[in-house]
Fold these 2 entries.
Entry 1:
Amino acid sequence: MGYNTIKYETNENIGKLTINRPDALNALNSEVLDELDNLLNEIKNDKDLRVLIITGEGRSFVAGADIKEMSVLSPIEANKFGKKGIGVFRKIETLPIPVIAAVNGFALGGGCELAMACDIRIASEKALFGQPEVGLGIMPGFGGTQRLQRLVGQGWAKYLILSAENIKAEKALEIGLVQDVVEKERLEERVNELAKSIAKQAPIAVKLAKEAINTGGQTDIDSALRIEELAFGMTFSTEDMKTGTEAFVNKQKAEFENK
Ligand code: CO8
């Protein structure tokens, strides 16, 4: 399918999705969200894919939801727009494969929220993070009030959301919002390295581990440990479990088949 506002390519078993509205610093309008939704449905059904990378074209990751589009919305329309974004971001978060945000520039408002819906965030030293919504008379509406506190705790979540202050990549690293910061020129290489290292692990084990972290993170410890117990047991029904453990015993490298 052809897209106007996003680009998608695959290299072996790694997908790369680029938000492609550089003139608007990749702001998320309804068209971007609709196209993302369609593409994510395709990605979800691609059995060969093992990792997805999300990044932005040009000097911005995503500078937020499209303020021009939002400025004329009625409350009902705003609600619909918010719901659309929340649905798309949840689709990213619950994809059966890991998703890495390669944060190449501005990650503001909906852009920070998009990065947070990914499993891992690697930032360029030029990246800027923030939830500036209250400065526009609105508030985060694509999951920011919930995901930010889960990632960095309520203190920093309140600091960032209530002050609308932006922070540089190094600060984002310090508070745990991103997992690594690299020079701008090295971002692609660093993210590809990480994607490849995830892609060579046993895919079903990776998928179950992601699911256990996501689901367990939303529940009490006893239920969460039960989720882990069940998922752990399930890995023993895979051929990849035999491949992985036998390769270790025979001092060989495992090649997993996603079975
Ligand atoms: N929406 C629409 N257009 C944008 C956005 C945006 N979020 N950000 C940048 N642009 C456009 C600019 O309007 C400009 O367009 P034009 O050339 O036509 O004037 C172009 O991108 C380039 O931007 P600037 O000239 O401003 O570039 P600068 O380098 O001077 O500044 C900044 C870069 C600092 C990133 C600046 O553009 C900026 O502050 N952007 C807005 C950041 C922001 O406030 N983001 C949060 C938006 S609100 C949000 O995300 C809510 C999410 C939840 C929605 C829930 C829905 C109900």
Entry 2:
Amino acid sequence: MDNQKRILVVEDERDIAELVVHYLQREGYRASQAADGRTALSRAESELPDLLILDLMLPGMDGLEVCRRLRQSHRTADMPIIMLTAKTEESDKIVGLEMGADDYIAKPFSPKELVARVKSLFRRLDRNEEPTPAYKYGPLVLDRGRFEVTDDGREVSLTAKEFGLLEALLNGRGRVLTRDYLLNTVWGYDYYGSTRTVDVHIRHLREKIPLLAEAIVTIKNIGYKLRESP
Ligand code: CA
């Protein structure tokens, strides 16, 4: 199955590593092990596992350092990490979490407890991965995930800025949005254009999507408002 989660277990104590891998595999996860920090780091970067179970005490580069480096790298900054440690002091827990671990398990732990924590972490992560919203406005649908706008099922060809502007209008429907607000939201604060740019793009939107000719209301000298409903 391709949707099996891949877990890399980083632990130099072989008995513990093998036990953990065994329990995870029994739960259907694709688990494998690495015995030191450098191997863990290079495998995490090349294989991009769905979860790293990372022991704090490792020969050479320790778990905190591995965690810190993963968080610094663009590719692995969001990789879920559960830290393992023999130390039980609260300060170590705080250090681990500050370094960016998502959860923390103190040794000795039961494999069952570990599996339960892994499952709960994946559940939490899956909940956060909600699909990107699609905006509906009468027959008009803006789908952010697909970067697509359809009018009564027909695709409308928009430029990136027109798309952003329409999204901003849909997001703030019923409210008066100033030209400055729209300029900053769509073009960014470091854009040196004038608010005329907004007017030009609004005109294009009204031309491309007839429904918007009426629905986008010009608020003289201030900006624009998309009617609450078309
Ligand atoms: Ca260890």
